[in-house]
């Protein structure tokens, strides 16, 4: 009976590890999607500034003012807000990732312990029978 319990516990812990690996895959996919969103926002910001600057002659005084506007916090506020939102989501995902990795390590250590226990029980049973 003890051997069966050890095997079931080991299998349960292996299932926990598999679940953790799946969760880590989902988290990593979400982090990749967020990185792609950041790149898209940065590209959008660059395109918006280039489109705005294209309206002015590069040698004019207005162009210098336009450059100041493009570099201002007011012009970039919308983009910075989106980027800050993404960074907050990334931080939450990083925390979740650490928690899942910790749970995965715990399950791995427990499983190793149960497997050692099972091996020890089997060795004792065969030694006793000889």
Report on this structure.
Helix content is 92%, strand content 0%. It contains 3 helices and no strands. Helix 1 runs antiparallel to helix 3.
In short:
By secondary structure, this protein is mainly alpha-helical. Helix content is 92%, strand content 0%. The protein is built from three helices and no strands.
The proportion of strand residues reads under 5%
Helix content: over 70%
Give the rounded overall mean pLDDT: 88
Largest sheet: none
Q: What is the number of helical segments per DSSP (H or I, 4+ residues)?
A: 3
Query: How does the helix and strand content classify structurally?
Result: mainly alpha
- The outline comes out as rod-shaped
Q: What is the helix/strand order?
A: HHH
Uncertain ranges: none
Report the span from N to C terminus.
21 Å
Q: Give the count of structural domains.
A: 1
Radius of gyration: 28 Å
Tally of strands: 0
Keywords summarizing the entry:
rod-shaped; 92% helix; 130 residues; mainly alpha
Give the topology.
Elements: H1 2-53, H2 61-70, H3 73-129
Helix pairs in contact: 1-3
């Amino acid at each position: 009976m003890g051997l069966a319990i050890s095997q079931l516990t080991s299998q349960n812990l292996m299932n926990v590890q598999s679940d953790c690996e799946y969760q880590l895959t989902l988290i990593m996919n979400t982090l990749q999607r967020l990185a792609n969103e950041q790149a898209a926002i940065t590209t959008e910001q660059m395109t918006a500034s280039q489109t705005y600057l294209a309206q002015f002659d590069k040698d004019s005084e207005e162009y210098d003012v336009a450059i100041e506007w493009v570099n201002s916090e007011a012009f970039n506020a919308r983009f910075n807000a989106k980027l800050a939102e993404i960074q907050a989501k990334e931080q939450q995902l990083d925390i979740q990732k650490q928690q899942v990795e910790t749970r995965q390590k715990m399950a791995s250590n427990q499983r190793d312990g149960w497997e050692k226990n099972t091996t020890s029980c089997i060795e004792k049973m065969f030694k006793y029978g000889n």
